[in-house]
Amino acid sequence: MCEWRMCEFPILILYYLFRGLDAKPDNSFTGGIRTFANSPFAITSHFAHYYYLVTQLFAMPPTQRFLALDVFRGMTVCFMIIVNTGVPGFTFAPLLHANWHGFTPTDLVFPSFLFAVGNAMSFVMIKWSALPTSTVWWKIFKRTALIFLIGYLGYWFPFVHEENGHWVMNEISNTRILGVLQRIALCYGIAALMLYHLKPKWVFAITLLLLVAYKFILTGYGDLSLEGNAALKVDKWLMGDNHLYRGEGIPFDPEGWLSTLPAIANVVFGYFAGRYIQLKGKTYEGLAHLLIVGCLMVALAYFWDSSFPINKKLWTSSFVLYTVGLDLIIISAVMYIIDFREKKNWTYFFEVFGRNPLFIYILSEIGLGILFMIRVGDQSLPSWAYRTIYHPIGPYWGSLGYALTWMLFCWMVGWWMDRRKIYVRV
């Protein structure tokens, strides 16, 4: 009998994903599974072969752009807007984040966006190979800094608030430092530097090390409760209570510094999935590999959940594996519908979001903030609209209708930009 440590399974899963790149007929995916089943130690004899296969992801240029990846990215932006716009207290449970341990469909949205960031990097990285290192560094740091700054200013916006009938400047000492866009920026910047400078084996090693080390940090320097977790201790030490998110009842930031480390893995796995799709995505073999690996990663996350619970707000390593697995399954389904069944009449709606993803997301956040500054009597314009137009159909359905309306407004802006070929790139 062989006793496998939990942290070894991601290596096994990723190994069999990239075995599909091998052109040798005697090294089929099912053959590899049978080999592993007969000898659990057989994988060690294939490590050199594994590294060679993964290296092909860097060596072989993509030949075309994939509609399925654009649609997937657009779907994440669309649902991010919906789940962020519901009326507090009147939102259907699936459109809320899990209170702590556990998982809801809403918990999949943000990691899917990071996964989509990795997909997009798989197209850009090839172009960087012809550029000087200094130019690539400038591109990475500029984009990281701009996205981080936009996210920070978004939390400070609208910079003023009404107090006793007067407009008063928002104090920067009470502004939240980290958030969604800030995490996207940090994960993008770190993942981009790793993928540009390191060999594939080191990228995988560091990514897996982050997931395993994060588990030991959280369990070794605190507990997994809201008040006693190590991520909160680090954020309080670095930033203090005034700069943390306050929506959990106590100062706690679900996009904090420490929990950003495992989130880098979502971008890295998204990158390699994107490269694999470009190479073998439009074959049944490639589709099967993605689907099987996705199912295996979901199963692994369920096993790991017993000792390291799936938790979005702590961004646990089991949460990373679970969301990456679901993303692979969803991408497989989208690819099957678009590329194999050739049903594409529904895709344009999501393509609009996917062509200006960051701009439309920022518009959804900043635009709503501007509307809240407009007063209708003694209430804000969005509050008045909800109570007058949407609440009569029911508080929960009205909240959903309100969120869908705002999502459609953002889509119309994106549609107008797409018709005029306006694409905002940060």
Write a structural description.
The chain has 426 residues and is mainly α. It has two domains: 68-96 and 343-426, no CATH class; 99-342, no CATH class. The chain has helices at residues 9-19, 29-38, 47-59, 67-85, 109-128, 133-156, 180-197, 200-220, 230-239, 260-280, 284-305, 317-340, 348-355, 357-373, 381-390, 395-419; strands spanning 160-163, 166-169, 375-376, 379-380. Strand 1 (160-163) and strand 2 (166-169) form a beta hairpin. It starts with 8 loop residues before the first helix and ends in a 7-residue tail after the last helix.
**Structural class computed from helices and strand pairing:** mainly alpha
Round the mean pLDDT to the nearest integer and report it.
83
Radius of gyration, taken over Cα atoms and rounded to an integer in Å:
22 Å
Shape: globular
Give unreliable regions as ranges: 1-63
N/C terminus separation:
53 Å
Relative strand content: under 5%
Number of helices: 16
Oligomeric state, counting identical vs distinct chains? single chain
Q: Order of SSEs, N→C? A: HHHHHHEEHHHHHHHHEEHH
Largest sheet properties? 2 strands, antiparallel
What's the structural domain tally? 2
Percentage of residues assigned to helices:
55-70%
- Strand order across the largest sheet: 1-2
How many beta-strand elements? 4
Q: How are the elements arranged and paired?
A:
Layout: H1 9-19, H2 29-38, H3 47-59, H4 67-85, H5 109-128, H6 133-156, E1 160-163, E2 166-169, H7 180-197, H8 200-220, H9 230-239, H10 260-280, H11 284-305, H12 317-340, H13 348-355, H14 357-373, E3 375-376, E4 379-380, H15 381-390, H16 395-419
Antiparallel strand pairs: 1-2, 3-4
Helix pairs in contact: 1-3, 1-11, 4-5, 4-12, 4-13, 4-14, 4-16, 5-7, 5-10, 6-7, 7-10, 8-10, 10-11, 10-12, 11-12, 13-16, 14-16, 15-16
